[in-house]
């Protein structure tokens, strides 16, 4: 089951970025996570449609190839897919640690923007659509496309200012809300959205988004 997955080791890391403000990722703070496996690639149209075939009728024209990341999926669709393949959506903290950056203020590959790695720059699109999964280089954990291909749903409800109240051990976000968090930026976005600590949000029931996809995790409980 862990084929095409990367192991993200247990440990403490710094989540968030003070420069984004409390709505989008402040304050910076340390959290501990147990180890887990993360999909190396965003879930593609082909993989999603092996489980949920009717999605082929509503593929996004901006992400239409078989190997392009699936989009036009509600958060609930993403949860169902991960459950049906024996996995789960990552928590917000898991997603950020798996991005592989040393700081939430950085990109998955480092502090400087590299136009060969994500899909957009400063609001000037380098692409007019999503790229096939695995197009952009792997990070230090061997996870691909963690910035600038499609946004990725995570399991957490969105809560402004919640970081300052969240637990520091395997945090899971608020107990409820209206919006769900998405991470990673997408092909029509600006550089700021591609930094690892940046967070945004959308309605979980909507299937109208051409640039929100997802990947799954397998959670582990580490022996102490």
What characteristics describe this protein?
224 residues, alpha+beta, paralog of FGE (formylglycine-generating enzyme), four-stranded mixed β-sheet, three-stranded antiparallel β-sheet, 12% helix, globular
Give an overview in words.
The chain contains 4 helices and 11 strands; from the N terminus they run E-E-H-E-E-H-H-H-E-E-E-E-E-E-E. With 224 residues, it is an alpha+beta fold. The strands form 4 sheets. It has a 4-stranded mixed sheet with strand order 9-8-7-10. The radius of gyration is 16 Å and the shape is globular.
In short:
The protein has four helices and eleven strands, in the order E-E-H-E-E-H-H-H-E-E-E-E-E-E-E. The protein is an alpha+beta fold and 224 residues long. The strands form four sheets. Strands 9-8-7-10 form a four-stranded mixed sheet. The chain has a three-stranded antiparallel sheet with strand order 1-4-11, with helices on one face.
Q: How many independent structural domains?
A: 1
Low-confidence stretches: 119-124
The average pLDDT value, as a whole number, equals 90
> What is the number of helices?
4
- CATH homologous superfamily label: paralog of FGE (formylglycine-generating enzyme)
| Assembly form of the protein | single chain
């Amino acid at each position: 089951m862990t084929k095409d997955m990367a192991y993200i080791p247990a440990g403490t890391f710094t989540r968030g970025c003070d420069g984004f403000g409390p709505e989008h990722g402040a304050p910076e703070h340390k959290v501990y996570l147990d180890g887990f496996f993360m999909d190396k690639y965003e879930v593609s149209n082909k993989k999603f449609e092996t489980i949920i075939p009717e999605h082929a009728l509503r593929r996004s024209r901006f992400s239409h190839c078989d190997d392009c990341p699936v989009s036009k999926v509600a958060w609930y669709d993403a949860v169902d897919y991960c459950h049906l393949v024996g996995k789960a959506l990552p928590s917000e903290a898991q997603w950020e640690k798996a991005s592989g950056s040393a700081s939430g203020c950085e990109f998955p590959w480092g502090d400087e923007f590299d136009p060969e790695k994500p899909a957009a720059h400063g609001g000037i699109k380098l692409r007019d659509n999503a790229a096939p999964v695995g197009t952009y280089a792997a990070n230090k954990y061997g996870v691909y496309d963690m910035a600038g291909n499609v946004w990725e749903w995570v399991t957490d409800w969105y809560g402004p200012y919640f970081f300052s109240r969240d637990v520091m051990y395997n945090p899971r976000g608020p107990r409820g809300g209206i919006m769900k968090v998405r991470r990673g930026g997408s092909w029509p976005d600006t550089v700021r959205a591609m930094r690892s600590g940046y967070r945004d949000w959308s309605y979980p029931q909507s299937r109208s988004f051409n640039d929100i996809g997802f990947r799954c995790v397998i959670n582990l409980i580490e022996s102490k």
